[in-house]
Design goal:
Elements lengths: L6 H6 L3 E3 L4 E5 L12 E5 L2 E7 H6 L7 E7 L10 H11 L5 E4 L4 E6 L3 H16 L6 H4 L12 E5 L5 H11 L15 H10 L9 E6 L2 E13 L2 E11 L8 H15 L4 E5 L2 H4 L5 E2 L5 E2 L9 E5 L9 E4 L7
Parallel strand pairs: 11-12, 14-16
Antiparallel strand pairs: 1-5, 2-4, 2-5, 3-4, 5-7, 6-7, 8-9, 9-10, 10-11, 10-16, 12-15, 13-15
Helix pairs in contact: 4-8, 6-7
This protein binds coenzyme A (COA).
Coenzyme A binds next to β11, α8 and α9.
Length: 329
């Protein structure tokens, strides 16, 4: 049996998607040959229940009570997975949304009242976010020295304030003092510093996506994502991201990336793109953008230009990625 069984992974990556149309449960008239698009069927002693598009039922004059929206959890769940249905059902119950569950070989499907469909998707996205969001971060958990006392300061992730900017520019200068491309010391001010300065002042600046990591009152990391586009589709362009050199490789970059993804999902963003090492960013789910139909702004960037499709990634995207204006040139 294939498919994901780990409940935490299933919930974090369940990717709920609503199918077009409305669906109804019909008690099939005894003796009548099956017709229309049968989406699911259950045979009971009392008769045959079928789930079908409402339009088909109307066209055939079949009666029904429940009119549902069909939500598929696109994660490939194993039929042996334990707890997914219960967790999803509990979250929807708490939101006072009724739900009928159908398990296919590959996916679980939820039928919720049409009027509750949007709210149900919100509840499911919130549930996925709760599972994928970084939990309380203790840098000593990741530090080499595991003998330290647990009273260590926790990493705080928050939105940038205007008064942080000098510290953020200084942090970026320190983080990029050695070029991540060449591995050599950079002469003068790294170009990422002026890029960040211009991003702060550009039309594509999004305050909620300039995220600061603070440890015991000291700014130790920063990531910024700004408005970018493929055709008319709004996306996020991530970068620069930097962590103070003495605290690199202690999980702060990971925390900033996960916070960005959680905020972007919560804000209904479609996807995040960046230029960087696939060795690092693939762990967050980034894939070469071209595999999703998005050409890098500079063709030579190839597979280093990566895209993370978020919960609301629309699919069928085709075009070239355009960063915020300060990235030009
Ligand atoms: C890149 C950066 C933001 C990552 O933050 P961080 O806090 O150091 O990273 P984390 O501790 O969360 O993750 C560490 C892991 O990422 C890996 N990693 C870090 N940078 C990497 C890179 N450029 N390529 C491949 N892997 C990388 C480490 O090897 C480590 O892997 P491991 O967990 O398997 O040992 C930070 O190292 C930094 O500021 N670097 C200098 C500036 C820079 O390069 N920015 C990104 C440009 S795309």
């Amino acid at each position: 049996m294939t498919g994901e069984k780990d409940l935490h992974t299933l919930l974090a990556t369940m990717h709920p998607v609503r199918r077009d149309g409305e669906y109804v449960y019909v008690l099939w008239p005894h003796g009548r040959p099956l017709a229309g698009e049968i989406m699911a069927a259950v045979r009971e002693a009392e008769g045959l229940t079928v789930v079908m598009p409402r339009d088909d039922a109307d066209a055939m004059g079949l009666s029904y009570d429940f009119v549902g929206a069909w939500i598929t959890l696109e994660v490939h769940s194993s039929l042996e997975a334990v707890g997914l249905t219960a967790a999803v059902g509990a979250a929807l119950t708490e939101a006072k949304i009724s739900c009928n569950v159908l398990a296919g070989f590959h996916h679980d499907h939820l039928l919720v009242p049409v009027a509750d469909a949007d709210r149900a998707l919100e509840v499911l996205h919130e549930l996925a976010l709760r599972e994928s969001a970084p939990h309380e971060f203790d840098p000593h958990e990741l530090a080499q020295d595991s003998s330290r006392e647990p009273a260590a300061p926790a990493l705080r992730l928050r939105v940038e304030q205007p008064e942080d900017r000098p510290a953020l520019l200084a942090l970026t200068a320190a983080a990029f003092a050695v070029s991540p491309v060449t591995g050599l010391p950079v002469e003068g001010e790294p170009e990422e510093v002026d890029l960040l300065r211009r991003l702060f002042g550009c039309a594509e600046y999004l305050p909620e996506f300039s995220i600061v990591a603070e440890l015991d009152g000291e700014i130790v990391g920063h990531v910024i994502s700004t408005r970018a586009r493929v055709g008319d589709l709004d996306l996020l362009g991530l970068g620069p991201i930097g962590v103070v050199p003495r605290l690199q490789r202690h999980g702060i970059g990971t925390a900033l990336m996960k916070e960005t993804v959680a905020r972007a999902n919560a804000a209904g963003e479609r996807g995040i793109a960046l230029l960087g090492s696939p060795g690092y960013y693939s762990r967050f789910g980034f894939v070469p953008s071209s595999s999703l139909g998005v050409a890098p702004p500079v063709p030579a960037w190839g597979a280093n230009f990566q895209l993370l499709p978020l919960a609301l990634w629309p699919g069928g995207v085709s075009g070239t990625f355009r960063y915020a204006a300060p990235f030009e040139g």
